Amino acid sequence: MENIALIESFSEFKDDKLIDRVTLMAILEDVFRSALKKKYGDDDNFDIIVNPDKGDLEIWRNRVVVADGEVEEPNQEISLSEARKIEPDFEVGEDVSEEVKLIDLGRRAILALRQNLISKIHEHDNTIVFKQFKDLIGDIYTAEVHHIRHRAVILLDDEGNEIVLPKEKQIPSDFFRKGDNVRGVIDSVELKGAKPTIIMSRSSPAFLEKLFEQEIPEVFDGLITIKNVVRIPGEKAKVAVDSYDDRIDPVGACVGMKGSRIHGIVRELGNENIDVINYTTNLQLYITRALSPARVTSIKINEETKRAEVILKPEEVSKAIGRGGHNIRLAGQLTGYEIDVFREGAEEDVELSEFSDEIEGWIIEEFSKAGLDTAKSILEQDVNDLVKRTDLEEETIKDVIRILREEFEE
User: Of 118, 100, 117, which Cα lies nearest the Cα of 2?
Assistant: First the structure.
C-alpha cells in the first residue's frame, strides 16, 4: 500500500490537467526509471509493473545469487546469505526478484521524483496544447477576457489555456472588459521555451472568411465559394464570391434580404463596410465590379505591368476612390492590379511630374504612392482625404493644390 499512497500523493494535481491515468502511469514509469538509474547506476535489471486501473506501480529488482564474499556488482548480484533472508531455499546461480518500495529510495529522491513528475506532466500538457491549437490555425475560436494589457488582451478558454490577442490584431474600434467573450481566428502557435504561445487575430481576412462560413449556410455547405477576401479592419472589406450552381445568386445569398444575413458579420467587425461582389474570370468585368459602388465607363488593362487605367464620369471618381482611398486600394488588392483612375474628358490633365520645378520630388512621390499621378486626380479630392491617403501635412497639400489650381486657371 506504500506505493499506492505515494503515487496518489504524486498525482493529486492531475485532475486539472489534460492527462488520463494511463498516460500518467507511463510518465511515472519513465520518471522512476530515471531515479533508479541515478541510485543504482542502471535500470536494466528492474521490472516496473504498472496497473493503471488501480493506480498502482510495483518495482522489482532482479539479481543473481552468488557465493558469500563473491559479490562484485551489488546491483546485479546478491550473496547467498542475503538471498536466503528473502527465501530460505535459494541456491547459487538462481535469480532473485526483490520488491523495491518507493520509500527505500530515500526522502530526497522522492522529492526529486515529485518535481520530475510535475515537470514531465507540464511538458506533456504543453505538447498536447501545442498540437491541439496548431490544428486550429485559421479557425474561429472563442475565449474570455482575463486581463487587459497595454499591447494585448489576454484571454482564457474553458480549459484554462491562455490566448493572446495583440493590439495590432484587434479591430481599431474593439473595446473589451474583463469577462467579455471574444471571437477571432487562431492566427499562430509558437513554442517559446516549453510553453506554447497562442495568438488570436480579429483583423485577419481569414476571420471575415470564417464568419461567412459560420453565418451563411450556402458558404458552409460549399454551394458558394469565397474566392478572395481583402480588408482594412474596422473600415471596409471586399469579398469575391462564386457559385457553380446557376440557380444560386451568390451575392444575394450572402447579403440576404435588406442585408439581414450579413448584418451580424458587420456588427461583429465593428460596423466594417463589406462589399460582396460576384467573382468572374473576365478581368475587365472583375475590376469593374471591384470598384463598386462606382460605375466605370471604360477600362484599359496592361497585363505585363499589372496596371489598369479606368475612365469614369466626374461624379463617379470620388466613389471609386472612396473615403481615405479605401475603395480603390481594396479593389487593387482584390484583383491584383494597380488601378489608375481618370475622369472622362480629362485629356487636358497634366502629369504631376510636370510640376517638378515648383513641387519637390519627394512630395510628388508621396502622391504617386497613393495613386495620384496627375493634377486633376489631386484637385478632385477633398483635403482631409488627401491627408489620410498620404503622409503629407495639411499645409503642404494646400500649397500643392494652390500651385495646381493656378496652372488650370491660366
Answer: 100
